[in-house]
Every structure is written in structure tokens, then in C-alpha cells.
Design brief:
137 residues, elongated
Length: 137
Amino acid sequence: MTRHMRRAARMAALLVAAGIATSASAAVCKKVKFSFRNDSADAIRVEKIVYWDDSDSKWRTENVKDVECSPGDPCTTSGDDLGTIVDGVQLHHITEIHYYHRHLIGSTWGSLKYATYFPPSPDECSNYRTYGRASIK
């Protein structure tokens, strides 16, 4: 190994240790929340969020902890990390969001449906962002 190669390897190791070696580690959007209002007469339970990543031209799915919401109430998911270190979405444009939910009919949760929401600009994914207010009927 040449002196130049050893120096480059040491520099790469230092950058990794400092946490700035790859842009992939910063590519995850951390603690992103999705807000919505239950504009139906029934309680609803949001089970997953599917969103269009316009930067990669593909749909992405986030399974959220089920969020139950009473009629007329505003609700928000607890906050999920979007993307992965390998397939990140930070600064990607999220241009359409589907809230997959069920209505409580009597004592039984109904079939899975979705409500669509189009976030306003700027629509880039960033840490601690809240997308919303979708209206779910």
C-alpha cells in the first residue's frame, strides 16, 4: 500500500468515525409525522401511510403504529423515520400521501380504505416535519 493510499484510508476512517463519511447516513428523514382530521361520524384507525416519492418516481409505504381518532378530532402519527440508510428520502419531494384507515362500525373495524392528501410546497422531506392536515371522511 502506498503512502497516499494509507493516508486516504486513514482519512476515510476518521470521516466514518465522525459520522460524516456518507451522505446515506443523513438520507433518512427522522421523526416525520402525518396529521389528519377525522371528518367522519365514526371513529377511525389509521394503519399505514403510502406516499409518492416524486424524486425517485415510486410509491413508499410506512406502517405506522395504529392511530385511533374520534369523530371531529385532529390526530397525528407518533413520528417515523422515512427511508433507510440504503434507500433514503431526505430532501425528496413527497407530492401525494394516502392515509390507509378503517372506520369503526358498531364494534367492528370496517374494510381498509384510503384518503388522499396533496402536501403544499415546499414538499421536501426533512427531519421532524409534520405533513398534514388531511381530511378523512
